[in-house]
Structures are given as C-alpha cells and as structure tokens.
Amino acid sequence: MFAAALCVAPLLFAADAFLPGVEVMRFPGSLTEISGLEQSTSSADVFWVHNDSGDEPRVYAVNRKGALVGTYTLAGAKAVDWEDMAIGPAPGGAGYLYMADIGDNNAKRDSVQIYRVPEPRVEPAQAPVTETLRDVAVYGFVYEDGPRDAESFFVDPLTGDFYVVTKRELDGNRLYRAVAPSANAVNKLVRVGTFGFTGATAADISSDGLQVIVRRYSSATNPLLPSSAAATYWRRADASMSLIDLLRQPGTTLPLVPEAQGEAIAFSRDGRGFYSTGERGSGANTPPSPLTYYAPATAPRP
Predict the structure, then answer these.
(1) Reported pTM
(2) Which residues contact 185 (CB under 8 A, 6 or more apart)?
(3) Alpha-carbon span 55 to 151, nearest angstrom
(4) How far, in Å, CA of 266 to CA of 275, rounded?
(5) Whose CA is closest to 181, among 92, 229, 111?
(6) How far is it, in rounded angstroms, from Cα 134 to Cα 100?
(7) Which CATH fold topology does 22-294 show?
(8) Where do the structural domains in the chain lie, given as residue ranges?
(9) 283: how many CB neighbours lie within 10 A of its CB?
(10) How far is 59 from 97, CA to CA, in rounded Å?
(11) Which of 11, 24, 99, 117 is 20–30 Å from 37 (CA)?
(12) Over the stretch 67-110, which tens digit does the pLDDT of each residue have?
C-alpha cells in the first residue's frame, strides 16, 4: 500500500466480481515469449500481443480461434526489451497501440522508450498479412530517481498520463507517472507511490479509466508466487476520484490461473472482464500459451 494517507472517496471492491478463468484459445506456437496483451478496439475477436526481448519491433494480431492474422513492424522502432503494451484513445474514435520498451533487468539503461502507433484495422477472418506501420511516435523517459526494471505500463484514457509499475524492489514495487508526456522528447517518470507487493509483470486500465489491474507470476508450485493471489484489482465509482488516490487504496486480491511465466493481462474492451496469458517458453513439447478469460460474475461469457 502507499505511504500517503488513504482517500475516503467511494470504491467498488468485490473479491467475487469475476468468475474463475476459462481458456478461450491457444496462441500460435511461434509466439514463445508473450509479454504484452490487448484486445482490439475494432474487433472483439482480435487480440494484440508482442514478444519479450529477442524479437524484432513488431506486434502480432491473433484471432479468437488462435490463428495469426497479422504481423506488423513498427518503422524506426527498436526492441531492446519490450515488456508491456497498452491501448489508448485516438482522434475520431480510433485507438493507439503503445509498446513499452521498459525492461531493464540490471537497472542500467539511461532512458527507456514507449512507442505509439495508430492501431491498424484487422478483420478476424482476414488472410495473414505482414505490414510495416510508419506513423510511429517515440516517447523517451528517465526515472527521477535512477534506472528501474519494469514490466507494467498503462495509459490513463481520461488524462493521457503514462504510468509504469516497477518489478524488483523487495520492499514494494513503485508507481511512476509522466503527466501528458511529449513525443520526440525525454520525459520524466515521477514516483507517486509504492505498492505492498513485489514482482509485478503486467498492468492494464479499462477503456473508461475506472478499473486498474496489476498482475504477478501465478505459479502452481512456488508458494512465494501463488496463483491464488496473483493479481490486485481497483475500481472507482467515477472520475471524481483521481487515479493516484484510487491506487492509494489497498486493492482487492484476485486469483489467476497458473501460467508458465505469466507476463500479460488486459481488460476486455467492454470493461466487463479481463484476459491473461504468459510466455510459452522453448521446447518442441511445450504447449502453446493459452488465452484465459475471467468473466464478470454477473454475466459470464467467454
């Protein structure tokens, strides 16, 4: 939890707000290190993912049947260590994809980058395409208190502020914010709080800006990383409570299914449920990564 005093504005917590996770499909076996996940704004049957470090600067579109329908390279981008992705509003009702190149295992990078590109329209039944996306904006960032390793990122759709949750601090992961950052500039990530957990591997905010979720690994065998307590969830009644005040609350612990190297989480575009997945890993006999959906308890649907 945060060191700051708790806000008394109303929260909507419910530990039973979501049903247990149900597998929707399996991602293509070629996607061995999925680290970022979002559902498309143009089709509920399309999901965006990207790999961890070692891949090229590209994002993949996969339909609900588990078929790869698009491979999109971001022109001019680099992929040092892509760790998370986000979707935010764009003019005309479209969406932007954000790719967070924020991984830094040894906390030595002088700066980190986030790439923004207009979300391409993808049809779930289209033939697979390979394209280059050229309208790419680059945001540079430095932490106010020195380099950090991070794998969790989201964009507040109500303010345009960027948020990063760090991973490795044993006394609690840190929350950083960049207020309305500028492209083609070096922006500052300012620490705005410290959580009561460590090991954060992904985060997301709902499209209306009222819900936030942060995940950690969800192990079936490691008692230090239990799947029964792998996510923390916050929900505010309306935007009268600031996002920082929301995250100063302790949050609600949610279970996730056990996942090998679980490093991705995303709200559904309607904000009712959420999805998770993880890295497949190498090896010919390793099964492809599943996409798991956690339906709202009031109206379950995959």
Answers:
(1) 0.93
(2) 139, 140
(3) 16
(4) 5
(5) 111
(6) 17
(7) Neuraminidase (2.120.10)
(8) 22-294
(9) 8
(10) 9
(11) 11
(12) 999 999 999 999 999 999 999 999 988 999 999 999 999 999 99
Tokens of 82: 């892509």
Q: Residue 238 corresponds to which tokens in the numbers above?
A: 């309306």
CB 290 within 8 A of CB 14: no
What six digits make up the tokens of 48? 């965006």
Q: 245-289 pLDDT, tens per residue?
A: 999 999 999 999 999 899 999 999 999 999 999 998 777 788 999
